[in-house]
Amino acid sequence: MRNPPLSETVIRGAVNKKLPHDSAIKQVSGEAEYIDDIPEPKDLLHLYVAQSHMPMRKS
């Protein structure tokens, strides 16, 4: 099966249509809640994972 010439190709759907983002209205109006706006729980545990920059050495 061969592809039709480009002049006969018709693209259908949402191509080149302006679609609003799901949270665009809240972001523009200032009503959107961001992760930095949410207060941390009182007993929140912070965790930091680190690796040694020196390999294990034999004694």
How does this structure look, described?
- With 59 residues, the chain is largely without helices or strands.
- It has a domain at 22-50.
- The chain has one helix spanning 24-29.
- The longest helix has 6 residues, at 24-29.
- It is flat.
In short:
The protein is mostly loops and 59 residues long. The chain has one helix at residues 24-29.
SS summary, helix count: 1
Helicity level: 10-25%
Summed over residues and divided by their number, the pLDDT gives a mean of 81
Shape: flat
First-residue to last-residue Cα separation: 71 Å
State the secondary-structure class.
little secondary structure
Number of strands: 0
Q: What can be said about the biggest beta sheet?
A: none
Strand content: under 5%
What is the N-to-C succession of helices and strands? H
Radius of gyration (CA) equals 27 Å
Poorly predicted parts: none
Mind sketching the topology for me?
Layout: H1 24-29
Structure keywords:
little secondary structure; 59 residues; 1 helix
